[in-house]
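hiii so my PI (J.) wants the whole complex modelled not just the main chain, which honestly fair. so below is everything: two entries, each one labled with what it is. i double checked the lines twice but i was tired so who knows lol
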Amino acid sequence: QVHLVESGGGVVQPGRSLRLSCAASGFTFTTYPMHWVRQAPGKGLEWVAIISSDGTNKYYADSVTGRFTISRDNSKNILFLQINTLRIEDTAVYYCARHPSSGWYLDYWGHGTLVTVSS
Amino acid sequence: SYALTQPPSVSVAPGQTARITCGGNNIGSKSVHWYQQKPGQAPVLVVYDDSDRPSGIPERFSGSNSENTATLTISRVEAGDEADYYCQVWGSTSDPYVFGPGTRVTVL
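here's the output for the full assembly
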């Protein structure tokens, strides 16, 4: 049973940094690409980033390029999202999600972690 | 970037059929995926590749896609189907995973 658990969210001041984690279990983590998706309060879903199964290839939404870094530790089955120079508009629930072995969608999602950027 | 449109809301009586549309330029040439998100919960994939259902998703959920409109159909609607529904496509290399704005389904 696929299980994804995000952590690391909280209240943070503008300009600071934060690292989110996503612990994966119930599947062979090392063989799947992984995503981050965010959802601002009361808004829709916004794709943030994807990382290949071995961590060598990474792609980002234009809105976060240069400030966000996706990475993974395949020895510990953990996905990360480093967010630098946080902005008010980064306030959102951040979800990690699995990319299936074939196709262009997200097949399993975690419950999300809330990041609130506020002074 | 590739843009998707969805109606903000759809209302349906229990037992009836709900149809949620997702519009896009020549969307029929793309694979469309649908997610259900209940209040306070994570999204759940309900249809992928236009019309396939993941295991555990009831047959009441079906999808179609042609020309400029994709449709998620929920047959015999139940109170538990009340949720936000998002369509998603692969847009382009510069804008890969595009979500629609979402449709709130209300069961009357």
